[in-house]
Amino acid sequence: MKLDVTKDLYFQKIQILIIELLNTIPKTRSIPFGILLARGLKRMASKPEILIVGGGVAGLSLATRLGKTMGRHGRARITLIDKSFSHVWKPMLHCFASGTVSNENDRVNFISQASGHHFEFWPGEVVSIDREKREVVLSPLHASDGSVVLESRSIRYDTIVIAIGSCANDFGTPGVKDHCLSIDNLVEANVFNEKFRMELLRAFANNSELDIAIVGGGATGTQLAAELHKALEIVGPYNLHAFGGPPPKLRVTLLQSGARILPAFPESVSEAAQKELESIGVTVRTSARVAAADATGFTLKDGSHVTAKLRVWAAGVKAPQVTTTYGGLPLNRTGQILTHPNLCSIDDDRIFAVGDCSFISDDPLPATAQVARQQARHLARHLPAFIENGQPVPGCVFHNKGAIVALGKYNGWAALPGGTVWGGGISHGLSARLGHAMLYRQHQVELFGLYRGLISCYSNWVETFVRPSIRLD
Ligand SMILES: Cc1cc2nc3c(=O)[nH]c(=O)nc-3n(C[C@H](O)[C@H](O)[C@H](O)COP(=O)(O)OP(=O)(O)OC[C@H]3O[C@@H](n4cnc5c(N)ncnc54)[C@H](O)[C@@H]3O)c2cc1C
Fold first, then answer.
1. Which atom of ligand 1 is nearest to the CA of 189?
2. Which of 18, 38, 118, 422 is 20 to 30 A from 61, alpha carbon to alpha carbon?
3. Structural domains in the chain?
């Protein structure tokens, strides 16, 4: 892919030359056209530069919205930077990891989204920010054979929004880095899926059991445990005699350090979810603090050992390590950027941070897609006036609309802010599971518009007739 940066720079230089030329013309009432033209060109040449770092739930939604309002009318140059080339709805990563959703059709390509929505896309990882020069530095982009495709580059900004998300937090537990997998992004979910498929085949061939241990009883770990069982149920009826005996037994152990799983939900949901998981064969161990991980499994603080062929760390939340190189911005203990309620860094009024990588000092919010989306919407509404007229961005008020957890096809619950819980029951939480799926569809409509969003939903449905319902290769 070729980035036409030099062409853009020449264009800007030509614009400036024309302005300078027109400025030499005496500004009398007899030449209003010249003055008007000069003003127009001047505005074009000094278009504010808005950088959005991270095209996740918050960043891509913000870039798309600002593209429609500012980019489309030439009011600003909006650039999205991401270290990957496509976006996925992160709350679906456990489905990609278990293979129950094929991710080919659920990716949004940044280049095509940018060209259709009046913003630019630059691939690369932002490794540092020079706040004096108002410049970010992107690491070189490498091909899979290690060769350099794009050299390290820097981009200037007037306003920057950091939306680089989060990753699981191993709290420095020995052995986790070397012996555990995580599913914080698509690459990791695919790596897990590859290992899961291979171990499953091995278990088929050896007529043995497959042990998987997941650390973290929050939404990620709980949903992954259920989805893995769903994957095995789908695989069961396939003709796999060539690989060996009957479908192997899957032994999933969910380890939660706290007293109950899904601590962000009411106790009734935690209890019902634990029962549901146990009914499908998942071993749930609460108050189980992990002391260390090794190639055979996890050692708990009480000295016991949980054997596992595949080990997943899905506990805790921290910002990516790279925030420590972002120009000395004040961070909290987990590396999240400290912001005022209006999402502006507490130390720099040109830097905003949204979603999982940010932390509002006065009023911390959970790291959820709901928070990320509302914050992106808030900035999309208020950044134009801030950039063009210097109007301060008001505080972002979070409207808690509740939370939904879906245990594969088995059950689901929604907890509303007033304490109402719905789901479970004889319908196996169908309404809650549909609600969970609707959140994704809503996100697609936000990115593509209603028409294309519905087509995408329809094409996903058509796919269920022509593709296997599990990833097999
Ligand atoms: C398995 C799983 C299930 C979940 N389920 C739910 C759920 O049911 N409900 C819910 O509300 N939340 C859920 N979450 C949490 C939710 O996904 C996150 O809160 C949400 O995605 C945060 O959005 P974000 O925009 O802050 O970051 P992300 O969506 O994570 O996006 C971050 C983006 O930044 C890019 N990036 C990272 N570092 C750099 C860098 N240095 N330079 C350039 N680009 C960079 C990444 O490539 C990525 O595109 C779940 C999370 C997981 C992992």
1. 1
2. 422
3. 46-167+318-389 (3.50.50.60), 169-316 (3.50.50.100), 401-468 (no CATH)
